[in-house]
User: Fold these one by one.
Assistant:
Number 1:
Amino acid sequence: MTAPTQVRVFYRPEDLFEASAEELILTANAAVRTNGVFNVALSGGSTPKSLYALLASKPAGTIPWGETRFFFGDERHVPPDHRDSNYRMANEAMLSLVAVPKNVFRVPAEAKEATAAAEQYEHTLREAFRLEANQFPRFDLILLGLGPDGHTASLFPNTAALGEKSRLVVANWVEKFKTYRITLTLPVINNAAKILFLVSGKDKAPALSSIFTPTSDPNNFPAKWVMPTDGELLWFVTQDAAAELRTKGDASFQSE
Ligand code: 6PG
């Protein structure tokens, strides 16, 4: 059963990050109590860096790091030490400070061919979640960001990955960057128990408004395709990012 989308609007980015940290802590401890493990997919870009640093600063015992398994929602086609690497950003901000190395499952994006990296990461997921052939992993939490063009993970507008229905991970050609990105597919994302979008900045306001406009085309704003089949969808957004939100649709809105 899917709960209605929740949108929380924060006046200050620091309030958004604190609330996001609380949400992750709550989810992590609940997952470990229930299943003995917390499987989380980290998002890339720049917004989540403050969240990762905040999490790393929390007192020992707040987060069950030893039982947390870190995956990535997407990765650029670059080595792990490259300045554009999502792994490098998360590792510097958090993972190197708190994670047990064997619990970090990064995308092998140093592979010469992006398709090989995607295939290898799909295999990693199948092994880590002990999946049968036609099963999708169910993450306890997937963190996502939003690009000004409405992309999320590396699901960019009108790209091939949007139509993927069976693969877990694909290499997605992004024409505007003239490069491949490696990304979780929508069936994986929508199979999550909880999805948390972190959106900050006025440059995201038009895309956010389009995503919450019932008549907009999700292929032009791929984050709109994110609809968990049996899970919670949370949007934590700053006031400037929410400035153009006209329709509330069936989402429940809360201003902090
Ligand atoms: C990436 C991310 C991407 C990101 C958005 C927002 O690899 O860049 O996965 O989907 O979340 O582009 O990025 P910012 O948070 O930097 O605005």
Number 2:
Amino acid sequence: MEERGSPDGDPARNLEQGPEGPETPIQVVLRVRPMSAAELRRGEQSVLHCSGTRTLQVSPPGGGPDVAFRFGAVLDGARTQEDVFRACGVRRLGDLALRGFSCTVFTFGQTGSGKTYTLTGPPPQGEGVPVPPSLAGITQRTFAWLLDRVQHLGAPVTLHASYLEIYNEQVRDLLSLGAPRPLPVRWNKTRGFYVEHLRVVEFGSLGALMELLQMGLSRRRSSAHTMNQASSRSHALLTLYISHQTVSQMPPVDTGEPPAGGKLCFVDLAGSEKVTATGSRGELMIEANSINRSLLALGHCISLLLDPQRKQNHIPFRDSKLTKLLADSLGGRGVTLMVACVSPSAQCLPETLSTLRYASRAQRITTRPQAPKSPVAKPPQHLETELLQLQEENHRLRSQLGQMDPKASGLIGARVSWAQRNLYGMLQEFMLENERLRKEKRQLQSSRDLAQDEQRILAQQVHELERRLLSACYLHQPGPGPAPPCPCVMVPPPPCHALPPLCPCPCCHLCPLCQAPLAHWACPRRELHLPQVFGSKAPADIPLSARPPPWVPPCSPGSAKCSRERSHSDWIQTQVLAEMLTKEEVVPSAPPLPMGPLNTSPVLRGGAAVPNLARRLEALKDQIGSSLGRGRSQPPPTEGT
Ligand code: ADP
Ligand code: MG
């Protein structure tokens, strides 16, 4: 719980803000250690003064202008370890780690500035002697706070820990069962940079965790030099893995996969050092060079990360093992807290200013915190499949829309979805309309075909009948000489056919079937007799083919039916001829017909009459054939017969 009355209340409250935004800056707090006894003995002066809880004033010894630096919190030498723990904001990171985020706390500064002290307290006074609780650093306090938090959560939480150091650019496992040996740093897409074969140990109590910490601290390389009697010669990374899975759901540790869930990593960097100042020789100098090189790489990455064009920039995280393992914390998805440590002594001013500048700049670096997806929260298989199908359909529809109308593809956002909805609605309507029209067209076509077939058959029949009738007439023509007397004055018409009244002309011909005289229009010379038939009323301008047969009653002038009946005269003439030849009534079957079953459509009437016509045609052929045969066997009629 935050202590509102405490001097570190304000900055801590700011640090409690979660990474709700898309980007979160690296949080930086400054810790100024007290002047050491040795420094005081040498008469060195303090050049650093805290101004409030966030600002540090640097007063150069030569009397130059003060330089001010502002951080999330500034904690001077009077602050206890507990104050630092409460003010630095590490508890926010602990909470985020419990929620699945990847969090990092790292100390930064010159050698002897108090980094290790801040994180883990003073160096152990002897083998197996624990750090006094009052001097315990951020790490131990966070352990205690976190385990307490986990206990009160009520949900099952599994805790693991790993501990490694980077010594002379080699990664060594501080929790390895045997002697530490170098481990490779690898990279893959899901994990980013990681240490292969690193031992991850499960622990269930604060005591067990403290033991792991002590084990690592005791194995970590440290040496004495003039500026620090227990100088860390390596960068150390202690990581807690917090998982909400049960043990049975956890992957086995020897697979090399870390437990899924949140992470909280404590990084104690080795301090930069001036070899001339520390007096390092031999192995110490090699270590110092290695430390400086990796810190230089870290500084370079920080500089590039601060560049506004950093999205285009390549950040050289691969330049050192340290930057590889901090890549996610600095420029990735982690939440990061930097504790910059400085010495107040005027002798350390150049390194102090350098640290302050780097720390100030690091505050402007942002990360994009993202909780790793828990396998427990994975959607069921059928939902995943459905999602994939929807995505595919969406993609296909989008491409179809793009092909349909280039203008539509240019629409954006809401307009695109609007256009999609309306275009597809219109498309559907058009498809239905097209289908309906196609069906209608098919019906009309079949009706038309039926009518055409029937018309063609009828035309053939009429043509054939006319041809046969005329040829029969010519066959039985008596030849040149005086025309026989018209039989209508001698004998009544035979009953074989219903002949209309004959004209009185002397040149009428005989029926080829029964030898009865034929009407004048069947006569090859009929035109000569027309004036007698039509008399003075015969219209001279009507062609012969359009003139009605003589038995058709003359139409009264002004009659509405007149023109229609006359226009069908040919058909009537043909019908009578057919009836005469077949001795049956010919049922008309195709338009234009003035008679017949008028209550049915022409198409249906014609369709039903076709088989009937075929039968009658056959009968007609037979009759014509037999009549022709009879006509040939009989002698032509002679005068007086
Ligand atoms: P670094 O890790 O930065 O090289 P250390 O943490 O080892 O430096 O600190 C160097 C010395 O200063 C140690 O002896 C340590 O006990 C002491 N020291 C550092 N910070 C403090 C502090 N805040 N209070 C008291 N002693 C401190
Ligand atoms: Mg140290």
